[in-house]
Amino acid sequence: MRLSNKIALVTGGGSGIGKAICLRFAEEGATVIVADIDQSAAETLAESITQAGGRAVAKCQDVTDEALWPEMMAEVVSEFSRLDILVNNAGIGFPGTVESETLEGWRKTQAINSDAVFIGTQAAVAVMKTSGGSIVNVSSIEGIIGEPMAAAYNASKGAVRIFTKSAALHCASNDYPVRINSLHPGYVGTALIENALSKMNEEDGEAYVNRVMGNIPLKRMAEPVEIANGALFLASDEASYMTGAELVIDGGYTAH
């Protein structure tokens, strides 16, 4: 039980990668706080974990609402005495080039994918800096390499990558027992990819899939649990000498 007696909060926990992370954390002994703007999805997953013998509670959370983060931290500390793990996972992604992306779309993407990671990390550090903890910020390989169809997404995930390093260095330099690392999934078979493809015309969508699949050396997209296993490692004490690092799980995509 690699997370035995740990209290873990996962944003965007009701579906996709977040759901897989919640399930893996629960399997390894953590009490999981499934936080999602979709309260129904969060409650359904928390109930499923509990029925399987794990420990989980659901929380409705809009990660972009700055005022709600201190409230969430206060609730967690009140209910569980501490927070050991935060996974900033909530995110969105829509296709858009430098020419076609709108300022509205850009700002929405940054608010959820980047701004919320800053707010969440800041709130978690405030409660972890005395008791200790691990923060995992879910970025993407799109935070390392460019994708012409994902201008706003690239920018948001690149921000998560470098912000994570800054926050990790701050905690280390102040002797806070808080590790902060970023997780960089490649292409994963989740609703995020499906939703992005649905916004493209058929020709562009087919070309995108062919190009992506042709550049994955392992010749397949990842399963959500394969990304969750990486989050589990970073959250656990097995990664005790890692901070400010980036863990890439992409089937070899960025090895080119």
Structure notes:
The protein has 256 residues and is an alpha/beta fold. It has one domain (7-190, 223-250): Rossmann fold (3-Layer(aba) Sandwich), CATH 3.40.50.720. The chain has eight helices and seven strands, in the order E-H-E-H-E-H-E-H-E-H-E-H-H-H-E. It has helices at residues 16-27, 39-51, 68-80, 103-131, 151-173, 191-198, 202-214, 224-235; strands at residues 7-11, 31-36, 55-60, 85-88, 133-138, 178-185, 246-249. A seven-stranded parallel β-sheet has the order 3-2-1-4-5-6-7, sandwiched between helices. Helix 1 links the parallel strand 1 (7-11) and strand 2 (31-36). Helix 1 (16-27) crosses helix 8 and helix 4 (103-131) packs parallel to helix 5 (151-173). The longest helix is centred in the middle third of the chain and has 29 residues, at 103-131. The N and C termini lie far apart (36 Å). The relative contact order is 0.15.
Task: List the topology elements.
Layout: E1 7-11, H1 16-27, E2 31-36, H2 39-51, E3 55-60, H3 68-80, E4 85-88, H4 103-131, E5 133-138, H5 151-173, E6 178-185, H6 191-198, H7 202-214, H8 224-235, E7 246-249
Parallel strand pairs: 1-2, 1-4, 2-3, 4-5, 5-6, 6-7
Helix pairs in contact: 1-8, 3-4, 4-5
The largest beta-sheet arranges its strands as 3-2-1-4-5-6-7
Q: Mind telling me the C-alpha Rg? A: 17 Å
What portion of residues is helical?
40-55%
In DSSP terms, counting alpha (H) and pi (I) runs of 4 or more, how many helices?
8
Under CATH, the homologous superfamily reads: NAD(P)-binding Rossmann-like Domain
Number of domains: 1
Mean pLDDT: 95
Quaternary structure state of the chains depicted: single chain
Q: Which CATH class is shown?
A: Alpha Beta
Structural class: alpha/beta
Unreliable stretches (pLDDT < 50, length at least 5) are none
Q: What is the CATH architecture term?
A: 3-Layer(aba) Sandwich
Fold-level CATH name: Rossmann fold
Strand content: 15-25%
What is the tally of beta strands? 7
| Apparent shape | globular
Distance N to C terminus: 36 Å
**N-to-C series of helices and strands:** EHEHEHEHEHEHHHE
Major pleated sheet: 7 strands, parallel
